[in-house]
Amino acid sequence: MRGIAAVPTYVVMQPTTLCNLDCSYCYLPFRAVDKRMPVEVAAAVAASVEGFAQAGRFSVVWHGGEPLAAGREHLAALLAPFGPGVEHHVQTNATLIDDAWCEFFAEHGVRVSVSVDGPEPRNEERINKAGIPAYRTILRGIEALHRHGVPFSALCVVSNPRPGLAAELYGYFLELGCEVLGINIEEQEGVNARVNAFADDAVRSFWAELVAAWRTDPRIHVREIEWTLRYAGAVLAGRADGILPAALDPIPTVAADGRVFLLSPELAGFTDPHYGDFSSGNVLTTPLAAILSGAATSAPWIGEYLNGVESCRRSCPYFGFCGGAHAANRYFEHGRFDGTETNHCRNSKIRLLEGVLDHAGAC
Ligand code: SF4
Question: What residues are in contact with ligand 1 under a 6 Å CB criterion?
Answer without folding.
Answer: 312, 316, 318-319, 322, 324-325, 340-341, 345, 349-350
